[in-house]
Design a protein that fits this description.
Largest sheet: 5 strands, mixed
Order of helices and strands: EHEHHEEE
CATH class: Alpha Beta
Shape: globular
Distance between the termini: 33 Å
Helix content: 25-40%
Number of helices: 3
Number of domains: 1
CATH topology: Ubiquitin-like (UB roll)
Structural class: alpha+beta
CATH architecture: Roll
Radius of gyration: 12 Å
Strand order of the largest sheet: 2-1-5-3-4
């Protein structure tokens, strides 16, 4: 899976993207976020409050748990406001 980070998430994690091998441990967005939290202090902090993190799978914003496949692209970003 390709993982993308935007705005303050990429700044905090010091990366814009990475490739993560698909596994049963990360078979859906809920389990992926749980796994992300175990990757170190920066990841734990970024994913500690999911009220300020949005998720898109294959460029489609999601609102609930979504099953992931090996070739999926998952993006994490803050809520966007208009003006």
């Amino acid at each position: 899976m390709k993982i993308l980070y935007f705005a303050w998430l990429k700044t905090k994690l010091q990366m814009t993207s990475e490739s993560v091998p698909w596994s049963e441990e990360c078979r859906d967005t809920d389990s992926l976020v749980r796994w992300m939290k175990t990757r170190g202090p920066s990841f734990a902090e970024v994913f500690s409050d999911l009220e300020v993190v949005r998720i898109a799978v294959n460029q489609e914003y999601i609102t609930g748990n979504t099953v992931l496949g090996k070739e999926d692209e998952v993006a994490f970003f803050p809520p966007v406001t208009g003006g």
